[in-house]
């Protein structure tokens, strides 16, 4: 939630409403959604290239290290899916439109704030690695955060202005004045973080000692994410509140000031609400009163006791229990093992596809992963008989239908998508975990259209990303070229490189080669960030890959991870590099650290490979990285269309190629093959696609 303009209003009166804190030796309840957005947008991270997740992971780790150094014990609370009532849908759609505009601005070199697609997943992975306690609520977390903080008598850390309304015993610390980067010391030994704490008592005292109980009414009258009634403008105009400022911020602040002064004259919410209704037409009063009262309840204490989850692992949410969802689903949602995306699809049969910095003139990048989502929807169809009795506002009448809010050009639309009807033993969500590992893995790989034998040489933790890459290459909407695939696979080598550098017992020559290659990757990444213009077509291609990875991860989670979760974070950020991870990888064990994707690096490598650099020349200094690259390349090449291996300028449209080959295929095949072999050997000297395989691949392509 959030009250428009309230945060900037109270910050403009910082000396009156805030007290200075030296935060140490305490628990703190953190609004996880607010934190990862704040860290993403305030840490000089590049947002154009689809996510420098390694850099973001470093920032998150440093944040929590600052807390640990001050003996501050963090408890992170994350929002879950949308409320069952779906009352926030209008607000969510408005925000989706705003993000599309910001993404477009970023794509053409302007400014904007759009989180990279996998930022939430990266954030959770860092929390797990640092052993930070966290919970994912069933729906919006604000009330649960307030209730937990009051139970423990500790402060809340957030940037949500609703925490200026909640009656918090120990107060609310805004993130933008939480100086975790400027940790100080008392008497040379005790560390603390300078912070400011909002004082609700000081706030109410400023407005004639108004009753705190009036603040929820103030919030809904002012307009929050749940309530934005046009008819309230009638009240605001007739009550003659001072609304005459010229600037947008000024108008909002005058409205806030006017409402607070007006409400301070009433003893309690009932008296104030009766006076609000007097200004409205009689026919509207009852409905408005019911809506306002219902919205005011959002500021009351929650029935969920998060302390039980943190102390003994028990999460009980009455709203979730009333839906009759399987116990394993509720547990997985609370532990963050299932995404809120799954919760929305399950409860509302509606999902909102997140915005990326992509080519707005092309179909949105999530189209490519729609078949994966249709399988997920099929798994969720028969979750509980109680769900059939719920009121789905946006639910289409078809029994298999789900709705998706997606980008179209620079706007949004709601599309109806049919779930895939699955076999009977797959259609009972309550028994999905009882399926054997082999059955679950088979369903995952069949969805991704990948044979298990292809993945056998691949390190365990890279099996899912490589399977997803094979799916991505097969899709007709993918316009990937060879340098896109090469860049993607090269980026996957960074984690193993750091493992070599940090592993004991490696020969000096091996370590030096890994260091040199890693340094070259870092140079490429830094050079890309220096203002290189974004290639929109390349950005769109990698947005498609990220969408496939995200949906592949969600399906993998729903199937109780038949393949290990890929590690999206930077390996150097964690103290897990003392074992010989590379040896584990060579023998098919788990690769515990793997920086999977760095947008700046993958775009920079694309530019280098297009210019002059060959993959072989890059990897010649590190034979072990070269060997792993060959495994990754060989697994993906068999799923790539033949034309991506043809020299530049020879990959024509399918119709032209078919026409030409239909008339002179036999005559020209030998010449084309020889030319392709020569070009391919000159530009990609290992992971070599044999000429015979290329011929077979071309023939198969022509038959389609």
Account of the 3D structure:
The protein has 704 residues and is an alpha/beta fold. The protein has two domains: 6-298, 5'-nuclease (Rossmann fold); 322-385 and 398-572 and 592-636, no CATH class. It has a five-stranded parallel beta sheet with strand order 4-3-2-5-6, with helices on both faces. β10 (401-408) and β11 (411-418) form a beta hairpin. The two termini are 51 Å apart.
Q: Give the overall pLDDT as a whole number.
A: 84
The quaternary structure here is: single chain
The CATH superfamily name of the largest domain is: 5'-nuclease
Distance between the first and last residues' Cα? 51 Å
Number of helices: 30
Percent range for helical residues?
Answer: 40-55%
Portion in strands: 5-15%
Query: What would you report as the Rg, rounded to the nearest angstrom?
Result: 28 Å
Number of domains: 2
What global shape is seen? globular
Flag low-confidence runs.
242-247, 571-594, 657-704
Compute the number of strand runs.
11
